Sequence to fold (671 residues):
Amino acid sequence: GSAVLRHMAEKGLAQSVYWGHGGDHESDPALMGLFWELFPNNYWAASGHTYHGGAGGGGHSRNVVRYFADVYGAASPVESKMGWKGAYIGGGPSVVVGTQYAASSIGKAQRLVRNETYLYVHIPRDELRGAANPIRWRGIPSVSLHRGYCGLGHLGFDSYHHNYLDGYTGSDWAFPGRPHHMLTWPGPNGAEPSARYEALLEGIQEGEARIFLEQTVDRGLLSERMSARIKEVLLDYLNHYCVWPQLRADSIYDYIHPWQDDSRKLFRTAAEVAKIVGIDVDQINLRAKVAALGRSDRTLGIRNWTGKPRAWTARTDAPWLKLEETGGKLLGFKKLPYRLDGKGLKPGQTVTGSIYVKDVTTGREQTFTVIADVIDPIELRADHTNFNIRCGKSETRQFRLVSNAAIDLQWKLATGRPWLKIAPSAGTIQAGKDMFITLTASPPDKTAATHDNGLVFSGAKGLVQKAVESSTFVIPLLREKPERKMPYGRIIKIEDMGERWKFFGTCLKGTRIETGVVKEIGKAHTAGLTNPTEGPPCARKEFLPIIGNERFSRAMWVYPHHESVFNLEGSRIRAFSAYVGVSNDARRRMIRNQHRKVNFEIWVDGKVVTQSGLMKTSSAARYLTVENLEGAKELKLITRLDSNKDDNTFLSCWSDCNFYATVENKKRDKE
Fold:
């Protein structure tokens, strides 16, 4: 991984690296977290079907996944969605019957900002099926931009030898000879270009002309009359390409339609507009990060569209925004280097500055605005910073120290816990480098306990001084009740606790989660679950409370971090029991972070009395019981991940939960 990044960085393409295979789900989710820790700011590619990921239910963590691909495509709206500005996601396509265009291909959607390195691309498998005419390859780049995608992808150059479709004899979309896998043909001396490949190259050139024209309209550089004319030209060009993709039908109409005339009109209009625009810039705004005491070197594209040399000047209005050149003569395009200089900036600041590029001939000045978020010059990073330790044991973890600065800096990591050892605990980190710090926790507790580790991270000439959120959880070994016997008493199902259910479901971040109790309906179960946090819809049907090889009749489905609190005062309740774990359905169809472990805890009057211990998603169910609750005021159920973080995909089960009330004898009842 490091060698790949170094190679791409040498070519100025470090931000073009995305890990992963772009499938429906990642088979090793833990690898995503590890690579994010080792290679921060290098994102993953995922999701072959939707932005949320997982046609097969796998899903993805959008903290680290920033490249999405859509095989289904979107309907074509009349108004261009200008994918070059940053793709749209979300919403659903709606087709107007009897027309080629959809009223809206996006619905209520959110635009992914390209400055944040989000990419949402179109996989044209439906438009470019086996019998697709080569001319369709010419239009697909513009179609993708028009529909709101950043571009198109998953195209194979010479993938005709031993691909995954070898031997397939089926029909529908997965038939042999999928053309988006084959842009060349095998020849006696190697791969030979195809008509579809040449058409695609021409389509990319037309896509560049399209972007230029749309940018001039979007930036208000032209008259209303010229802007309206450009929209008409672009719509004419796309008219015979923008057919709803799921029709999966090609027609000789592709060739009967005067596509050559539309192409000539496109380039002729672009040439006419170029004379008006003269010199411009390739983007007008950017949101970026720069470290205090660090720097970020970038480039701004300056473009001369006239075909003749023109003079230009450039200036900035912010001291932290520095230019290498402030003027010259330009023929064609060039990259203007500039630097975001973090010297003198403080972490947590957000600063704004602009670069002004002037076309000396016309006097027109275009503004490029940069909003920079100032980050720490040195950072501690880890998958999570907590320790989960069995009584009498120890645990060793490594934290990664990363320098974002342009100079060497001093650092220190301290703790007030004598049983928490740090090596090294202080030192110097070189500019732009990283190193690992080893922490070993050996708490002396013989019973359940939770400790704040009291970590304080400091350095970077006083710019960094912060407490590190880190805890140590001491977990006793669970000893299940022999033969899993039920406690004695009158059974009260958890869903029948009514008003004694004092509080239900609080995330660590303070987000309220409404969670329903699953009731059996025939052979299926319906969980009425809603979660307002970001993520896929949490309503799930036909999730059975089967944990490993054990089937339970009902379950309370929760997402960590979860808490349920019950008022026991005056209730005559003497015991509680539950089977806990992760259902097979949730493991296979919903949970993203399969490497996480979950702990189920039962607290009575502010003290933990029993807990499951850390459980994998594949662990067998464990039986928790609490007795002698007479006189207790409150019982709390907590579901916590080893990371002590929220995860609104980690669906967990408290199965067959029952309270047990004292049973009075008949004689006393009669009295």
The chain has a mean pLDDT of 79. The chain has four domains: 71-276, 280-375, 378-475, 482-661. DSSP finds nine helices and 45 strands in the chain. The domain at 280-375 is CATH 2.60.40.10 (Immunoglobulin-like).
